[in-house]
Write a structure and sequence with these properties.
Blueprint (H helix, E strand, L loop, with lengths): L1 H8 L3 H66 L2 H8 L5 H12 L9 E7 L20 H8 L14 E9 L2 E16 L4 E11 L1 H10 L6 E5 L2 E5 L21 E9 L2 E8 L4 H8 L1 H38 L17 H49 L2 H16 L3 H18 L5 E3 H19 L3 E7 L7 E3 L3 H13 L6 E10 L2 E8 L6 H12 L3 H5 L5 H12 L5 E7 L3 E9 L14
Parallel strand pairs: 10-12
Antiparallel strand pairs: 1-4, 2-3, 3-4, 5-6, 5-8, 7-8, 9-11, 12-13, 13-15, 14-15
Helix pairs in contact: 2-7, 2-8, 8-9, 10-11, 11-12, 12-13
Length: 600
């Protein structure tokens, strides 16, 4: 018991009330409602099963009634002396046969409204037509072959055990349609005349009449009478009189609610009745008043009571709990409206007083922190400007412009062009409006520098610059890429007697800008290369102040500062082959610069 109390003490009041509501209201409600619904549905299911059994019994009666009617007609024909004599006696002329046949047909022996009889005697003297057909006419038919293969004995009367039922889709009178026939043969002897014979009697049941009888029964569910896999009769248009048989295997087995087998003469027929899928909804619809009453007593009234308690008690505790847990702009949120005079209201007033005092303390500390951040930012800007001052001698630009104009006046065009390239580089360097340029502008500076170096070294220096189109508008800190190009150009040409190539590549890998500078110079010794990579990755202001050659480290530091320490540097070098410097930096946005400061 003590353990349970300790466990409950760890659960919030709202959850405790939910537990009470769950175990004292919901679960008993679910149990009782489930029992009531089970009784309702079970009763409906039993009624549905009784209905399906009635459907099966009715279908059995209908099909048996039609078959028995056909059998009785067959029996009546077989016992008719005049019919038997007419089937075996020889005829002197066709007229004699027609006269005899006309006399028989006047008595309406060959039909009973549900079926039609056709007799096939061994007598080949008769004329095909009407209810008498020559035996030779049917020897190639499918039903005759099946009947001949049927295990039967020929006896002097029609017997149910020797009656063969034939069901198929075949041609009758020049049209294909479904047929349902009963076939039997018998030997007869006319003692007064000493005449013997053998007749095959075929009774064709009225297929449409059977289907109509099944459909008119209005069973309220789907019914299928099948022979093997074929659906012989149904009440949901599974094929028509002039359509081939559907298959019971095409029906979902789970949909079958009841199946029974009936034996009719030589065949066994299966009767399938489909389940009513809406048994549950039918039961609810028929007992809607009881369902509504259960919902009102077991759901509506308990839920309203619980919601009222929740608003009066747990809802205010929830507001107080959320206020303690929330942090908006690093301060506590006060509760705007405190309603009531109970213990919870007193606690909420106390929380507001505490939150006000804490917010005042936070505001004081926050202002002090802002001041410290402003000092740190000012220090970083001063360090950045110090870096600029090392590479921005403004006076040099004016001197270069004077030299260029002097060369133009003296028509020293090649010198003027080289000075102009150098002046363009210097102009890029002294523009203080922004420390960022597009990749396209930085590449123009690189090409200007390489052209100046080619003027110096001639064909000994070759270069190739490639930039992906989707990289040209991306902003980068200016005079960074050209610094690495300068380093590659200067160091690769040292002690190099053959042609030296400089490759500059700018590409994009998803949200990363990749800068590559490659040369085919003498390479960097392994230890020096390893040390340079380490210095670039860990460069800071103090490291630059302690070194004389700061070009690459200067550019590396600026890139790290402007990418918030996310720039990555790598160097691959092989003696006598060359060096590859790779710089990868994140792309914050096409119109944004690194560090989150919007480009002016």
């Amino acid at each position: 018991m003590r353990f349970l109390v300790k466990l409950l003490n760890r659960i919030s009041i709202k959850r405790k009330l939910l537990i009470i509501f769950l175990f004292c209201v919901i679960l008993p409600m679910i149990f009782t409602d489930a029992v009531v619904m089970y009784i309702m549905v079970s009763t409906a299911a039993r009624d549905d099963m009784d209905m399906m059994q009635n459907v099966v019994d009715s279908a059995k009666y209908t099909i048996r009634d039609y078959c028995d009617t056909g059998y009785n007609l067959m029996l009546r024909i077989s016992e008719n002396k005049n019919v038997n004599l007419a089937s075996v006696v020889p005829y002197n002329s066709n007229l004699d046969y027609y006269i005899k046949y006309f006399e028989l047909s006047k008595n309406k022996l060959f039909s009973n409204g549900r079926s039609i009889v056709t007799i096939y005697p061994e007598n080949e003297n008769i004329i095909n037509g009407g209810n008498f057909q020559r035996r030779s006419k049917i020897t190639d038919t499918e039903w005759y072959r099946q009947f001949e293969a049927f295990n039967r004995k020929t006896i002097p009367y029609v017997d149910p055990s020797d009656t063969y039922i034939y069901v198929d889709y075949t041609k009758v009178n020049w049209e294909e349609k479904r047929v349902f026939s009963m076939i039997c043969d018998y030997d007869f002897y006319e003692e007064s005349n000493g005449i013997t014979g053998n007749n095959i009697i075929k009774v064709d049941l009225n297929y449409s009449s059977i289907v109509q009888a099944i459909e008119n029964a209005k069973y309220g569910t789907s019914l299928y009478i099948c022979l093997d896999d074929k659906i012989i009769f149904s009440n949901d248009k599974k094929g028509g009189l002039h359509a081939d048989f559907s298959r019971i295997s095409e029906i979902d087995a789970d949909a079958v609610g009841l199946k029974e087998r009936i034996k009719l003469y030589d065949k066994q027929f299966d009767i399938y009745v489909l389940k009513n899928e809406n048994v549950t909804w039918t039961a609810i619809r028929e007992n809607w008043f009881l369902v509504v009453a259960l919902l009102g007593l077991n759901v509506f009234f308990p839920m309203v009571t619980f919601l009222l308690l929740n608003k009066s008690f747990t809802e205010r505790l929830s507001v107080l709990s959320k206020s303690f847990a929330s942090e908006a702009n690093e301060s506590l949120i006060t509760i705007p409206e405190v309603d009531g005079t109970d213990d919870i209201s007193t606690l909420m007033h106390a929380y507001n007083d505490m939150a006000t005092r804490i917010n005042n303390l936070i505001e004081t500390e926050y202002k002090e922190r802002l001041k410290r951040q402003e000092v740190d930012i000012a220090k970083q800007r001063a360090e950045l400007e110090a870096l600029h001052s090392q590479i921005n001698p403004h006076f040099l630009f004016n001197a270069l412009e004077s030299i260029r104009m002097h060369s133009v006046l003296k028509q020293e065009n090649e010198t003027a062009r080289m000075v102009e390239k150098l002046a363009m580089m210097q102009r890029q360097n002294v523009e203080w409006g922004n420390d960022y340029v597009s990749v396209a502008n930085e590449i123009r500076l690189v090409e200007a520098y390489l052209e100046l170096q080619k003027y110096r070294f001639g064909n000994k220096l070759m270069y190739e610059v490639s930039v992906d189109d989707d990289c040209r508008d991306i902003r980068v800190p200016k005079i960074t890429l050209v610094t690495f190009v300068e380093n590659a150009c200067v160091h690769s040409m040292e002690k190099k007697t053959s042609v030296c190539w400089i490759f500059v590549r700018v590409s994009r890998e998803y949200d990363t800008l990749v800068l590559e500078v490659e040369d085919t110079g003498n390479g960097i010794p392994e230890d020096a290369c390893r040390q340079l990579v380490e210095d670039m990755r860990n460069v800071d202001i103090e490291m630059i102040r302690g070194k004389k050659s700061i070009g690459i480290l200067n550019a590396a530091l600026r890139l790290k500062m402007f990418t918030e320490q996310r720039a990555v540097f790598d160097i691959e070098s092989e003696s006598g082959v060359g060096t590859l410097i790779t710089i990868k930096m994140p792309i914050i946005g096409e119109n944004k610069v690194y560090g989150g400061i919007e480009d002016a």
